Amino acid sequence: MKHFFHPAAFEEYVSAAGYYTAINPHLAESFIRAVESAIKDILKYPEAWQTIEDDVRRRLVRRFPFGIYYCIEGDAIMIYAIMHMSRHPDYWKGRLRQPQDLE
User: Fold this and answer.
1) Which pLDDT score is estimated for 103?
2) pTM for the whole thing?
3) Which of the following CATH numbers is that of domain 2-86: 3.40.50.10580, 3.90.1170.50, 3.30.2310.20, 2.60.40.10?
C-alpha cells in the first residue's frame, strides 16, 4: 500500500519538524521517527484506527501531541493532516475531496 500527503499536510509535517529542530535536533529526529512509525502502522493496518467523521480516521502519534488524519482511497492512504491536537479540530476538513473534484 502506498501513501500520499495532501500538500498542506506535508507542510504541517515539515513545519512541526522544523519547530522541534529549533528546540533540539534530537527531539526533531524523535518526532520524525514517531510520525514515520505511525504511518507504517497505518499502511500495515489501515482500518485499525477510529473513524472520526465519514471515512476519515485518526492515528495518534506516540510521545507527541499530533494526530494523523487519513482516508483509505482504493489501495492507497491519503494523509489530509498532521494535526497538533490543540488546534481547532475541524480546520483540515476543507482539504477533503469534494464530489465535484472527482468529475
Assistant:
1) 37
2) 0.89
3) 3.30.2310.20
